[in-house]
Amino acid sequence: MSPSTPSSAPARSDAPASAPTSAELLDFVRRTAADTALVSSLPLDPEGRTWLRLDGPAGSEAWLIGWPPGTGTGWHDHGGSYGAFATAAGRLTEDSLAARLPTEGWKTLELADGVDRTRQLTPVQGRAFGPHHVHQVLNESADAPAVSVHAYYPPLPLMRRYSRTGPVLRLEQVELPGAW
């Protein structure tokens, strides 16, 4: 994540005895997205994304993220973590690839036809994804902020950032946890 204005949050709890399932992460992000008091506590910045780190279930990493109009993540993956996210306010668009990409040994890939997927997510709608998920999330509104909840397990070991021109996906950067 490359947000501009961090908020403070309670520290994470200790690692669990067992990992959360994708269904448990999805349930967590949907329940948290429906928590109007928590969602309204996130300070929104009209210039950049804001975030609040949350205690996720069973040692997962979780975030409440505010999206000003016209902002997005750019293409990225989650370094092998699986996860879920849900919109809490506003509307978000997720563009994703329905293809498993190699994680090592390449800088540029030409994507096959038909791998693009787009989803519109309104409040409390969410989705779970696997450890090889590549996507971008966007607030395409011209005037309304959006808020979302994200959870990942294991906690993000890294994020790979990509650029995309037509069918060509290029690995641009690998970010480690200290970068977000």
By CATH, the topology is Jelly Rolls
Poorly predicted segments: 1-16
Number of helices: 2
Using the CA coordinates, give the radius of gyration. 16 Å
| CATH level 1 class label | Mainly Beta
User: Strand portion, in percent?
Assistant: 35-45%
Strand order, main sheet: write it out. 1-2-3-11-5-9
Q: How does the overall form come out from the CA principal axes?
A: globular
Tally of structural domains: 1
Sheet/helix structural class: mainly beta
Helix-strand string: EHHEEEEEEEEEEEE
Strand count: 13
CATH architecture grouping: Sandwich
CATH superfamily: Jelly Rolls
Mean pLDDT: 91
Report the helical percentage. 10-25%
Major sheet summary line = 6 strands, mixed
Task: Give the key terms.
globular, six-stranded mixed beta sheet, disordered N terminus, mainly beta, Jelly Rolls, four-stranded antiparallel beta sheet, about 40% strand, about 180 residues, 2 helices
Structural topology:
Layout: E1 5-6, H1 22-33, H2 36-41, E2 50-55, E3 61-67, E4 75-76, E5 82-89, E6 92-97, E7 108-110, E8 116-121, E9 126-129, E10 135-138, E11 146-153, E12 159-165, E13 168-175
Parallel strand pairs: 1-2
Antiparallel strand pairs: 2-3, 3-11, 4-12, 5-9, 5-11, 6-8, 6-10, 7-13, 12-13
